[in-house]
What we know:
Layout: H1 2-18, E1 25-28, E2 31-34, H2 42-47, H3 57-71, H4 82-85, H5 101-115, E3 116-117, E4 121-122, H6 126-139, H7 152-166, H8 176-187, H9 191-198, H10 200-219, E5 234-237, E6 243-246, H11 260-270, H12 274-286, H13 292-304, H14 314-327, H15 330-348
Antiparallel strand pairs: 1-2, 3-4, 5-6
Helix pairs in contact: 3-5, 5-12, 5-14, 6-7, 6-14, 7-10, 10-11, 10-14, 11-13, 12-13
Amino acid sequence: MLTVLSICCFRLLVGHIKGVRLAFSMREKRKNISFKQGDLPLDKLLALKGEHLTIPADKILELCDSWCQVVQLPEGGIGIGGESEQYRLLRNGVQFHELDYDGLKATITGLSKVLLLPGLNTVVDQDHFGLWSWCAEIILSRESEVFEDNEYELRKLFETCVRASLAHCKKPAPSREEWDQQIQRDQLIPHNAKFFIQESGLALAYLVFPLLEGICKKLCFEFISMDGRVVRSFSVPTKNGGTKDYDPNGRWNQKQCSSLRDLLFLTLDQYPSPEFELLRQHISLLDSEGDPFDVIYKWRNQSLHGSTSFQTIGGTLLNIAMFLLVISFEHRYDDSRLPVLENCRRNSESDNRSPWSYYPPY
């Protein structure tokens, strides 16, 4: 019985990997552009030199929206199959290392919708592993200059969250032989490490809250220090429609800010963008009780006090954290991308992968 089940699972996986070759076509100024590399794994795409055609940001959002629409069943619940998988980004020629700044923002936004569905059901795909690993690669690179020397702890927290998000990532096995080799390698993982990897999503769900808080403080350093001390006056909306004032010269409860909700409102005010609003709208679809930042605050408090365990929300909040870091070096992204990509190519050609390597994710 187990042998038959294993063979069936293997056939399903092979069918998912090979599938029917899908070509995404679009019309742009009287030109039809077809993407032919959608079935290649990321490490093979990385080896291809030269510039490649990239799907525009609006088409990336369209693909993700189409996936979300297809998986929603009329009777409720979700159904994932051939019809929905034709909208995966990798299958449609999206190469994360070729994304421009707008394309990367759209990908983070679109894949956030695909990742966490109503009912807090999460669906992690190779698209997400590719996105997380590329974002980590360019954010943590020296070229991007995202983290300062005095932000070592925040950087390490970000690294740990990324590793947790990629813990389950495996290279697609195109043959039975490679499938068997992966099973053999899995059997060599030490007992405790194996089960910790299985719970990496839970670890991420807890670690991403202090990460998001730290990133908000980092981006809004003119208003608040990393220890929560208010250094410049600001106001945020309250639940009842009023405002809450923070003032370094005010009352004791105005001189310190430890509310992730209020920090997110401050960050939104300082870094407004349509994509940030789309991320907020998505959270509203998951939980309509209050403002999206109130929902995140509720998730944090319930997780912190052990009343509820939201194991599936880690990836979505990591996407928000990555989005905020990406927009923090908007003017350096395009200049940083090619040097970072070249480092990835050199690393992929080496027998010993660098400990600081993230992309490709396997």
